[in-house]
Amino acid sequence: MFLALLAVQTLNGLQLGILLFLISAGLTLTFGVMNFVNLAHGVQYMVGAYLAAMFASFTGGFWSALALTLPTALAFGLALEILVFRWLYDRDHLSQILATFGVILFLNQGVKTIWGAAPLSVPMPLALSGSIPLMPGLLFPVYRLALIVVGLATALALYLLINHSRVGMLVRAGSTNAAMVSALGVNIRQLFMLVFGFGAMLAGFAGALVAPILSVEPGMGDNLLILAFVVIVIGGIGSIRGAFLAALMVGLIDTLGRAFGPQMLRLALAPAAASQTGRALAPMLIYILMAAVLFARPSGLFPVKR
Amino acid sequence: MTLRSQRPAILLFAGLALFPFAASFGADTYLLTLGARMLILALATLSLDFLIGQGALISFGHAAYLGIGAYSVVLASMAGIDDLLLQALIAIVVAAVFAVLTGYVSLRATGVHYLMSTLAFGQMLYFLFVSVSPLGGDDGYTLSSRSLLIGEPRLTSDLAFYYLCLTVLALAYLLLVRIAGSRFGRVLNAIRQNPLRAAALGFRSFPSQLAACVIAGSIAAVAGTLLANQSEFVAPAFMSWQRSGELLVMTILGGVGSLWGAVLGAITYLTLQEALSLWTDQTQVIVGPLLIIVALFGRRGLAGALVPRTSGGPA
């Protein structure tokens, strides 16, 4: 029984970790390559979920909605880059915080104006609905398993793109020394735009993927933004590999801590005290980890090699 | 501190002092309550401006101190301590301890990493109070009445409460201007402008920056005690990251470094929110782009737009 519970919670943790990776990948690149504090990355995830909901209601299917969401999220990210972000690359962090906070306010209200304040839902694709037995007596939803597989595949594709392609080489070079890359004749502005749009698309992809299992509502990106910051700080700003490992760590620690923290403390404390302390401590774990990493290894656990 | 350089601040505070007279022609209680709330958040913003403008320490967890102040009122009144002065004293002590403990970790980092670690500590405190069920957890805690002031219930009148908030804000402003001009403030500024040169002159950055964190945190905690009294309600939402972000936005909007700009920024931002909400329920659709425009075109916020920079003043 305990083993089954552990297996389920581990899978849930992996699923959260994969989701966090998809969001953090773009954030860590914009942060690392452009030294840009983008608070508006969370709302791009939200916009992805809303786009999926809208397209699903037009076309009636999940797959067609997903196929339409990806290019639209990319276009949306590029539009934001052209309208707002590209004017802020040379400015200090304070201006970037002010502007991207403005984008959050605008978009959180904007989706409410367009689609209403009530949560929307996206139909689960038929082929992936239902549950399958993982071991005797243990059912797990197919869709969540599919999410994990898709996330891992995306991570692999990103790895190949960043480490074994020309564009990826330029991005890595840009994150080490943008001025030098520019001096060698690369249009760094165009590269920035590409990275930004791609990051926005990945966040939108994440939003579309979770739309069938979460309710799509205004502000749904706010807390994930903070979790994504935790991930990129732990992993090392600018490092995709770091973001991947840290996202899995954060997903697992958060999920398992909430599920088993109180029980584990019961070994040392009285039951009432244990459940109270456990409930207080579990959500704090990842932030404690983040502070510890910042204290001991400020450049993160898996920093970019300089 | 010359009288001339303080002209905008004098005008600003005179305007705030006269506000209740103007308010008496309109919806008295509503405007006074709103005014007091603005002054309180302006106090918290002021303290953040000190931290950023003098110490270059961009905190993304400053709302934690608002929460510390607010929950100090709750815990003190549970323990039978009803006087605001004592509650504020408790809040200051707790805030100072929190600032020292977190500053010891955060100040090892610089720039974005400092920002991220203050965010982490803010979130820890937030989740701590969300989980403490005797204090209402996520739902918050309703206070039975406002605190006493020197033994008497003097804060029940909205007018009295407004002027109390204004007095505290003015005192905090004077204190911070004095500190910024003092030897300590100059050292802090030297470290901000050129850490290497300051270090070469023998000034260690850590003690000065830690002291700045303690000062800013204590003032924000006092704002928290006032905020709890203003709304007679305390919730973890007081220290959510969105609130920290809002404090940052008000500081930047006002123009970092002038101190009075922070007060102006807070009042402008909150007035805008309130005025627009009377007219439309799509407030943020307008406020958001306005913030973007200020970020793109206004180099030094409202203070910079009102008073063009002259030579000699602190940068």
Structure report:
The complex is a heterodimer of chains A (306) and B (315). Chain A is mainly alpha-helical and 306 residues long. Chain A has a single domain (8-296), classed as ABC transporter involved in vitamin B12 uptake, BtuC (Orthogonal Bundle). Chain A is built from twelve helices and two strands; from the N terminus they run ααααββαααααααα. Chain A has helices spanning 2-34, 41-59, 62-83, 93-115, 142-164, 166-176, 178-183, 188-210, 222-235, 240-266, 271-281, 285-296, and strands at 131-135, 138-141. Chain B is mainly α. Chain B has a single domain, classed as ABC transporter involved in vitamin B12 uptake, BtuC (Orthogonal Bundle). Chain B is 72% helix and 1% strand. Chain B contains 13 helices and two strands, in the order αααααβααααβαααα. Chain B has helices at residues 7-23, 28-55, 63-78, 84-106, 111-131, 158-181, 183-193, 195-200, 205-231, 241-254, 260-279, 283-297, 301-306, and strands at 141-142, 233-234. Chain B has a two-stranded antiparallel sheet. Chain B is globular and about 55 Å long. Chain B starts with 6 loop residues before the first helix and ends in a 9-residue tail after the last helix.
CATH class category name of chain A: Mainly Alpha
Q: How much helix, percentage-wise, in residues of chain A?
A: over 70%
Number of helices of chain B: 13
At CATH level 3, the topology of chain A is ABC transporter involved in vitamin B12 uptake, BtuC
Distance between the termini of chain A: 48 Å
CATH class of chain B: Mainly Alpha
Mean pLDDT of chain A: 88
- Shape of chain B from CA axes? globular
Q: Which radius of gyration of chain B do the C-alpha atoms yield?
A: 19 Å
SSE succession of chain A: HHHHEEHHHHHHHH
How would you state the average pLDDT of chain B, rounded? 88
Largest interface: A-B, 44 and 45 residues
Largest sheet of chain B: 2 strands, antiparallel
How many DSSP E strands of chain A? 2
Termini separation of chain B (Å)?
Answer: 15 Å
